[in-house]
Description:
single chain; mainly alpha
Amino acid sequence: MRTDFxxxxxKAGHSExxxxxxxxxxxxxxxxxxxxxxxxxxxxxxxxxxxxxxxxKLLLHGDQILDEANKxxxxxxxxxxxxxxxxxPGNSLVLALLIPFEF
Length: 103
């Protein structure tokens, strides 16, 4: 992931960008991190670039999962559907746990 991010950042003209180091870990809530805190890194150009890149990775991963499911059920008379839901605590913008940085 780190290499992929650096390649995407360089290609987009943001070679100085690196993965955020202030996003916390899996069990942190947003307010406990510098990334999602008030005036956090997510508001900066680097933070916005990272969130855009990461969301594209999540969408790609979802597409890959659905492709595999379609292959598994090819020829079967079933309808496939999927649902992904996120439940951030309170009125937080995003969960810090959505971005695990321990690659």
